[in-house]
Amino acid sequence: MDKFGVWAQTGTWAARIDDAAWLEELGYGTLWVGGSPDADLHVPEYLLDASKTINVATGIVNVWTSEPEDVSHSFQRIGSDRLFIGIGAGHRQVNQGYEKPYARLESYLDRLEVPVDKVLLAALGPKVLGLAASRTAGAHPYLVPVEHTAAARAILGDKLLAPEVTVVVEDDPATARAIARKRLEIYLSLTNYTGNWRRYGFEDADFADGGSDRLVDTLFAWGTPDQVAARLREHLVAGADHVAIQFLNGHHAELAAALLLRSR
C-alpha cells in the first residue's frame, strides 16, 4: 500500500464509483470500503473495475453478518491482486449474537480462504493486535489517537499498520469541531471505542455532550490542508505504514496537494 488512501462508507462508494479514477489520478493509493460491506464484495469489485492501479480494501467485513466462505468465494471470483480483505468483530451494542468476539475472529480466520498477505484485522486492544500480528498481514485500527498508532506498531512488529483518520479541512475551530462531533456521536455509545480511548487518558466527561474539545482534537485532524497533512504525517512518524483518510467535508484535491501525492 502507498502512504495515503481514502476511506468512505459502502453506500457512499456505491453512489460515487466513478470517483475511483479521479482519486487514483490525485495520487491516493487505496480505497477503503467501510460500513460492513456485504460478503458479495460487489462495491469493492466495481471500484476495482473503475480504476487501474489503486488498491481496494474492506474496512471492515463484519464477522457476525458475513460468513467467511461467502467472502472467500467473492475474493476468488474477483481475482484481483489489488484487493485486500479487512475483517472485524463489530460491536456488542450493534450486532446480534455478539459473544466471545476474539474466538469468533479466530474461527473466522480458520475458515477464510484468502491469502494471509491480503487479510487485515480491525484491531484496537493489545490482544486483537496480537492476533493481527500472528494471523494476518496487519491491522486497520479505526478512530484512534496517534499514541495508539505507536502502541500498535510495538505489538505488530513489521506487519502492516493502516489506521483510519477522519479529517475536516476547515480552520475555524467551532465549525470544524461541530462537523467532527456530528460524525463522532454514534461512536460515543460503543464501548469498544470508549474503552480504547480510556487507555489514553480519556474519561466519562470526555464522552458527554458530543465529546470534549480534547477528545475531538485528538481523534480528528482539522485545519488548513497543510495543518491536516501535518497531523496525518504524525501517524507515519509514530509507525503507521499507511493512513486511511475519511473526509467529512471534501477537499480531496487540496489535501492531496498538501501531502505531495503526485510527486511521489
* Share of helix, binned: 40-55%
What is the C-alpha radius of gyration, as a whole number of Å?
Answer: 17 Å
H-E string: EHHEHEEHEHEHEHEEHHHEHEH
Number of strands: 11
- CATH class group: Alpha Beta
Shape: globular
* Stretches with pLDDT under 50, minimum 5 residues: none
Main sheet characteristics: 11 strands, parallel
Mean pLDDT: 95
Look at the helices and sheets and give the structural class: alpha/beta
Separation of the first and last Cα atoms: 13 Å
- The total of helices stands at 12
Count of the separate structural domains: 1
Structure, briefly:
This protein is 43% helix and 17% strand. By secondary structure, the chain is of the alpha/beta class. The chain has a single domain (4-169, 225-263), classed as TIM Barrel.
Can you describe what's shown?
The chain contains 12 helices and 11 strands. Helix 11 (225-238) packs across helix 12. With 264 residues, it is an alpha/beta fold. The chain has a single domain, classed as Luciferase-like domain (TIM Barrel). The two termini are 13 Å apart.
Layout: helices, strands, pairs:
Blueprint: E1 4-9, H1 10-15, H2 19-26, E2 30-34, H3 42-49, E3 55-59, E4 61-62, H4 68-78, E5 83-88, H5 101-111, E6 119-121, H6 126-135, E7 138-139, H7 146-156, E8 160-161, E9 164-169, H8 173-184, H9 191-198, H10 213-219, E10 220-223, H11 225-238, E11 243-247, H12 252-258
Parallel strand pairs: 1-2, 1-11, 2-3, 3-5, 4-5, 5-6, 6-7, 7-8, 9-10, 9-11
Helix pairs in contact: 11-12
